Amino acid sequence: MRDPIDVSPLVGELLGLDLVNTRPLGADGRADLLGTTEQLSAWLALEPVLDSNLRGAVPTSADLAFVHAVREHTEAAVRALLKGSRPPTSVLRGLTEAQRAAPAVRNLHWDGTAVVATYQRTGRLGVRLAAMLAEAAADLLTSPAIVSLKECEADDCIMLFIPSHPRRRWCSPTRCGNRARVARYYERHRASARETVRQRD
């Protein structure tokens, strides 16, 4: 198992999956890559699809609870779908309520040559962030691609991904893919060495 201190957030999937993947397996069980306000700020900076009114925001410890609740609901829903089960009604209701608490409104303004619209949410940061993440979860759960959802095949990984090609087996070729290839390489050489010893005997 990997030490949770060495685990960094895996980004690049749909935002809802990136959120779920902030709870990887570590040496002592599940790690929490959004366990502190500093970690949440760092993760927000890695995500390219955030609402502009959330960029640069400094979360407080109270904001973490809103994010953790949406992450818990999102994971419960996607894990249920991964097993071919119906997501719990309470989980879907929780994601809906998080969106309802800070809906995105098109703010119209004049940029000097034309009317432009930007989406903005109002309310405290944690509520706005939870709404945006719950909306990303809704996009994920209703996407046709959700039927392709997979869990990483590495023994000590539970990261989720939607493969861009059908042969993809790992959450990341540089994380689990390399470790699996190295493990196979050493196993082949151990087997070869055992066979050589057996033939000598």
Index terms:
mainly alpha; 6 helices; two-stranded antiparallel ribbon; single chain; Jann2411-like fold; 10% strand; 201 residues
Question: Could you write a compact summary of the structure shown?
Answer:
The protein is mainly α and 201 residues long. It has helices at 15-20, 37-46, 61-82, 89-101, 125-142, 173-200; strands spanning 25-26, 29-30, 105-110, 115-120, 150-151, 160-161.
CATH architecture: Orthogonal Bundle
Order of helices and strands: HEEHHHEEHEEH
Envelope shape = elongated
Rg calc: 21 Å
Kindly report the average pLDDT value: 86
Give the DSSP E fraction (strand runs of 2 or more residues): 5-15%
Low-confidence stretches: 1-6
Distance between the termini: 36 Å
CATH topology: Jann2411-like fold
Strand order in space, largest sheet: 1-2
CATH class value: Mainly Alpha
The major pleated sheet works out as:
2 strands, antiparallel
Care to count the β-strands? Answer: 6
Helix content: 40-55%
Layout of helices and strands:
Layout: H1 15-20, E1 25-26, E2 29-30, H2 37-46, H3 61-82, H4 89-101, E3 105-110, E4 115-120, H5 125-142, E5 150-151, E6 160-161, H6 173-200
Antiparallel strand pairs: 1-2, 3-4, 5-6
Describe this structure in words.
It comes from Kribbella sancticallisti. Residues 149-189 form the Zinc finger CGNR domain. The protein is mainly alpha-helical and 201 residues long. The protein is 48% helix and 10% strand. It has six helices and six strands. The chain has helices at residues 15-20, 37-46, 61-82, 89-101, 125-142, 173-200, and strands at residues 25-26, 29-30, 105-110, 115-120, 150-151, 160-161. Strands 1-2 form a two-stranded antiparallel sheet. A hairpin with an 8-residue loop joins strand 5 and strand 6 (160-161). Helix 4 packs across helix 5 (125-142). Mean pLDDT is 86; it is low at 1-6.
